[in-house]
Design a protein that fits this description.
This protein has nine helices and 14 strands. It has helices at about 35-45, 60-65, 65-75, 150-160, 175-185, 190-205, 215-220, 230-235, 245-255; strands at about 5-15, 15-25, 30, 50-55, 75-80, 90-95, 100, 105-110, 120-125, 130, 135, 140, 165-170, 210. The strands form three sheets. The protein has a six-stranded mixed beta sheet with strand order 1-2-3-4-5-6, covered by helices on one side. The chain has a six-stranded mixed beta sheet with strand order 7-8-9-10-13-14. Strands 11-12 form a two-stranded antiparallel ribbon. β3 (about 30), α1 and β4 form a beta-alpha-beta unit. The protein binds zinc ion. Zinc ion binds near residues 60 and 133.
């Protein structure tokens, strides 16, 4: 199956970004959201891997900043959303498009998942999701260019992926996200367990990603805006909260103040 033979590893960048590296056993690779070229170039030099593809989820500098420098040294094909703020040459990716990484024998489909930015996209296949700054583990991105309704629609698309899909997002925010989620839903035992696991991992600086869509559906308040416990938590702030986007709006505003 496409995708099952791919290896994904994290190249840490800045204080809490992850640049994802995709390999398939050959001497070639792809990277996702290289905000900084330096750690990628260091890794490529060390391993001798040839960079063939660059996948971009959204236009923020901490996700695309390293691309021009990488393109000076590697003849890589860039896949990115339609957005005039992404100024280098790229293949525009729209909802439903298929991205073929022939040298890696890999294919990804595109989902448009706006809210963090208006043109944010995700790349996914049978068991892998690159969700950028939209679906964090136990959290979601800020709504810089979209509404709670946009984020609800985006979350619904991601929630519909198979439960065993592994989510590779753009930041190590999981520990703080668990602290907030426990305020919203203190009695959620899956969340309590995830929080303990994350605290253990972070105590020694270990990555908390990826998590599966199934785990996120059980723990992530922004994927659970139709669950009674989350709606009731939102109703304590605004009694008019109902399932879906109104609860999404209240929970996100609460997180922004947290
Ligand atoms: Zn961002």
């Amino acid at each position: 199956m496409q995708g099952n033979d791919l290896n994904i590893s994290a190249i840490p960048a800045f204080s809490d970004n992850y640049i994802w590296l995709i390999t398939s056993g050959e001497n070639v690779c792809a990277v996702v959201d290289p905000g900084d070229a330096a750690p990628v170039l260091k890794f490529l030099t060390k391993t001798g891997l040839d960079l063939r593809y660059i996948l971009l989820t959204h236009h923020h500098p901490d996700h695309i900043g390293g691309v021009p420098e990488l393109l000076e040294q590697y003849d890589a094909q860039v896949f990115a959303p339609a957005d005039e703020r992404i100024r280098f040459k790229h293949q525009v990716c729209m909802e439903g498009d298929q991205v073929v990484l022939a040298d890696l024998n890999a294919k990804f489909r595109i989902l448009e998942i706006p809210a963090h930015t208006r043109s944010h996209i995700a790349f996914y296949n049978e068991n892998i999701l690159f969700s950028g700054d939209t679906l964090f583990s136990v959290g979601c991105g800020r709504f810089f260019e979209g509404t709670a309704t946009d984020m609800q629609t985006s979350m619904d698309k991601l929630a519909a992926l198979p439960a065993n899909t592994l989510n590779y997002c753009g930041h190590e925010y999981t520990q703080a996200n668990c602290e907030f989620a426990l305020q919203v839903e203190p009695d959620n035992t899956a969340l309590q367990k995830r929080s303990e696991e994350v605290n253990r991992l972070r105590a020694t600086g270990i990555i908390t990603l990826p998590s599966s869509i199934g785990e996120e559906l059980a723990t992530n308040p922004f994927l659970r805006t139709r669950e009674r416990a989350i709606i009731e938590a939102a109703q304590k702030i605004d009694p008019r909260a109902t399932a879906g986007s109104s609860t999404m709006a209240i929970i996100r505003a609460w997180k922004d103040r947290f």
